[in-house]
């Protein structure tokens, strides 16, 4: 709802193009979900809530990206709208993880340990970058 409201405000009241309005609405709503919502939920509910949070982010990402591509599309070709959604790295990575989990496939411990090292500073780093960007 926030995305649609922001899109309509930018398009109607600010006289922006459809593409500009869609991109600005995405940037104004999506980053809040991932950069602010994810760390807060994980810190409040703990690691056991991570799977559900990432499922919500996957659905949210797919929905917002689809709406952005649909509203900003200059072409009426369905492939031009759906292709970027299917090739989105966030949607691909979380969907791949879900498929591997459901299939019962396990990654080697070396890879899991490497990902764990990369994951630990990700949330505090994202919050730091978000705060630093607000200074400007």
Short description:
By secondary structure, the chain is mainly α. The protein has seven helices and no strands.
Care to describe what's here?
- The chain crosses the membrane at residues 21-45, 51-73, 85-105, 117-135.
- Keywords: Membrane, Transmembrane, Transmembrane helix, Transport.
- There is one protein chain.
- The protein has 136 residues and is an all-alpha fold.
- Helix 1 (2-13) packs antiparallel against helix 2 (18-45) and helix 3 packs antiparallel against helix 4.
- The model has no long low-confidence stretch (mean pLDDT 80).
- 82% of the residues lie in helices and 0% in strands.
- It has one domain.
Topology (elements, then pairings):
Layout: H1 2-13, H2 18-45, H3 50-72, H4 78-86, H5 89-103, H6 109-119, H7 122-135
Features:
globular; transmembrane helix; mainly alpha; 136 residues; single chain
The number of helices is 7
Any low-confidence stretches, pLDDT <50, length ≥5?
A: none
State the shape.
globular
Q: What's the mean pLDDT score?
A: 80
Amount of beta strand: under 5%
Instruction: Give the distance, in angstroms, between the N- and C-terminal Cα atoms.
Output: 28 Å
Largest sheet: none
Give the helix proportion (percent range). over 70%
Task: Please write the string of helix (H) and strand (E) elements.
Answer: HHHHHHH
Keywords: Membrane, Transmembrane, Transmembrane helix, Transport
Protein name: Transporter
């Amino acid at each position: 709802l926030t995305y649609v409201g922001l899109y309509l405000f930018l398009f109607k009241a600010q006289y922006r193009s459809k593409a500009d309005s869609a991109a600005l609405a995405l940037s104004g709503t999506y980053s809040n979900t991932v950069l602010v919502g994810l760390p807060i939920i994980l810190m409040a509910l703990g690691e056991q809530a991570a799977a559900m949070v990432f499922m919500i982010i996957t659905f949210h990402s797919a929905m917002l990206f689809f709406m952005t591509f649909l509203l900003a599309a200059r072409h009426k070709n369905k492939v031009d709208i759906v292709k970027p959604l299917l090739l989105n790295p966030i949607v691909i990575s979380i969907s791949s993880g879900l498929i591997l989990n459901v299939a019962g496939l396990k990654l080697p411990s070396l890879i899991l340990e490497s990902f764990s090292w990369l994951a630990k500073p990700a949330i505090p780093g994202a919050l730091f970058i978000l705060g630093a960007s607000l200074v400007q």
